[in-house]
Amino acid sequence: MNVLIIFDSLYGHTEKIAHAMQQELEGEHKARMEHVLHYGSCDLAHVDLVVVGSPTHGGYETEDIKVFLDALSDNALRGKRTAAFDTSVVKEDQNPLISKIIDWFGHAVNRIEGEMEEKGAEHVIKQSFFVDGETEALKEGELERARAWARELVKP
Ligand SMILES: Cc1cc2nc3c(=O)[nH]c(=O)nc-3n(C[C@H](O)[C@H](O)[C@H](O)COP(=O)(O)O)c2cc1C
């Protein structure tokens, strides 16, 4: 399967998830990861599985991911496998006010899903990964979870 993982990442957590997924799939599959700003004019025509990953910023994906998705042609994702993931902080690690705000705004992955559907995606498989609010590192086990999720995405 030809897999393309497009990601954005301010502090590197989303990139680490994308990298774990790409490493898990390469070998058996043609798996590439591209920072959204380096995506350029990559052609999606021969891509079977498109994965989009973004940090959650105020409940949304980053502006660069939004610009990338907006720029796709209307049916760019039709007939392809599609998946989206986000990274965000663990709600329970935050003070009650921030925790409420996180609840209120929700996860970037839901916005990405809607935007991928506007570009023809029929079923976007979604996943969220978490950063520990105290250590500011990915929560333990998240890279393993990313690798397992990647394997699910390419199952026949
Ligand atoms: C401007 C900004 C807004 C954020 N908004 C949210 C949010 O709404 N909900 C949340 O859970 N985390 C929020 N976060 C935390 C990030 O989603 C989290 O740290 C993310 O994993 C960072 O990914 P990165 O290292 O790939 O940049 C925000 C972080 C920043 C810098």
Overall description:
- It is globular and about 45 Å long.
- It has one domain (2-153): Flavodoxin domain (Rossmann fold, 3-Layer(aba) Sandwich), CATH 3.40.50.360.
- With 156 residues, it is of the alpha/beta class.
- Helix 1 (13-25) crosses helix 5 (142-153).
- The model has no long low-confidence stretch (mean pLDDT 94).
- 35% of the residues lie in helices and 23% in strands.
- The chain has helices at residues 13-25, 63-71, 96-105, 108-118, 142-153, and strands spanning 2-7, 30-35, 49-55, 81-89, 124-131.
- It has 5 helices and 5 strands.
- Strands 2-1-3-4-5 form a 5-stranded parallel beta sheet, sandwiched between helices.
- It binds flavin mononucleotide.
- Flavin mononucleotide (FMN) binds at residues 9-15, 55-59, 87-89, 102, 105, 131.
Outline the secondary-structure elements:
Elements: E1 2-7, H1 13-25, E2 30-35, E3 49-55, H2 63-71, E4 81-89, H3 96-105, H4 108-118, E5 124-131, H5 142-153
Parallel strand pairs: 1-2, 1-3, 3-4, 4-5
The site of flavin mononucleotide has 18 residues, from helix 1, strand 4 and helix 3.
